[in-house]
Design a protein that fits this description.
Number of domains: 2
CATH class of the largest domain: Alpha Beta
Radius of gyration: 20 Å
CATH architecture of the largest domain: 2-Layer Sandwich
Helix content: 25-40%
CATH superfamily of the largest domain: Bira Bifunctional Protein, Domain 2
Strand content: 15-25%
Order of helices and strands: EHEEHEEHEEHEHHHHEHHEEEHEE
Shape: globular
């Protein structure tokens, strides 16, 4: 079934993304508009906002309109074993907008891969993120990072969680002045402070950035042999993503950017954000969340991403186009 001008550009984009994910073997996942409030209360700091719309059910149970999709998917997939579960969704979530500071119903499309997640799964999800951005914009970028590198550097510094959070905030905002001030206050020493600064200032195509970063981390006497091996493995994980993109036509979309960060309590490994020309905010965000799985007493791994349809602007790419709908 095809559409023309019956649907808005945002709806056309939604149908195109759903068709893309279904074509790669992902199954449609549908969920209720609400969950028990306790699910979100136990994972409040995972959410962008601690404000949730709640109501009391007829049996006295406190319920909540869902502010997040990932938590519901993990909760409702308990027994995964050695399988790989590939799901996509098209759901409305209910959050406070950072712009208006009012609750909004926000359309989100995304996918999750749970279970025996390996390098091939991670590469597939990153490539689907790139294809998603290509669906949305002719001028798109996918910025990729590896949180394990930052986590390993923090461990070698022996700093408090509070200092880690302060440094992470500076890296996210590329605040070099603030980062230098925190490093002096924490007495990190010039070598490790320089490495943190390198993570802030180094950005660009993988072929330019990865050799520079590897030399900075591996070509000095700051770390032990074991620490260097851990860093080498983490840089190798980024290189595998680069190799997976080779020959796909999406190579130019890929950038390495360590200002892409997420909550270290929940996320690990490869994380990423997608940007479209003319849109000030990221329109796609995702990554590995093995730590969330562990906190929710799951033994499997997971990676996924969401596309924030309300961030897409006018999506002129879809003007006058027909889009295939998955019935």
């Amino acid at each position: 079934m095809k559409t023309d001008n019956i649907f808005s550009n945002k709806e056309k984009a939604m149908f195109a993304l759903r068709a893309l994910y279904a074509s790669h073997g992902f199954s449609m996942y549908r969920m209720s508009k609400f969950e028990k409030f306790e699910l979100y209360a136990e994972n409040m700091d995972f959410l962008d906002s601690g404000q949730i719309i709640t109501f009391t059910d007829t049996d006295g149970m406190l319920m909540a309109l869902k502010p997040d999709v990932t938590l519901s998917i993990v909760k409702n997939n308990r027994h995964i074993g050695n399988r790989i579960i590939k799901l996509f969704y098209n759901e409305n979530i209910y959050r406070v907008s950072p712009k208006t500071h009012y609750f909004r119903e926000i359309m989100q499309v995304g996918l999750e891969c749970l279970g025996k997640v390996d390098d091939a799964c991670i590469s597939e999800v990153l490539l689907l993120a790139a294809e998603s951005m290509n669906v949305l914009s002719d001028e798109a970028k996918l910025d990729v990072s590896n949180l394990d590198i930052l986590t390993q550097l923090f461990e070698s510094c022996g700093i408090s969680k509070e200092t880690e959070e302060q440094i992470t905030a500076c890296i996210s905002s590329k605040n070099i002045h603030g980062l230098e001030k925190i490093c002096r206050s924490a007495d990190l020493g010039p070598a490790k402070a320089k490495l943190l600064k390198t993570l802030v200032t180094t950005y660009g195509a993988p072929e330019d950035v990865l050799p520079e970063l590897e030399e900075a981390f591996l070509g000095n006497g700051v770390f032990s042999f074991e620490e260097k091996e851990s860093f080498r493995k983490s840089f190798g994980a980024l290189q595998k993503i680069v190799d997976a993109f080779d020959g796909t036509g999406f190579e130019a979309m890929l950038n390495i950017d360590f200002s892409v960060v997420s909550d270290l309590k929940y996320y690990n490994g490869i994380i990423f954000k997608g940007f479209a020309a003319g849109v000030p905010d990221s329109v796609l965000s995702g990554g590995q969340y093995d730590k969330l799985m562990k906190r929710m007493k799951r033994t499997s791994r997971a990676i996924g991403f969401g596309v924030y349809m309300d961030n897409l602007g006018k999506l002129s790419k879809f003007d006058g186009e027909e889009v295939e709908i998955d019935d």
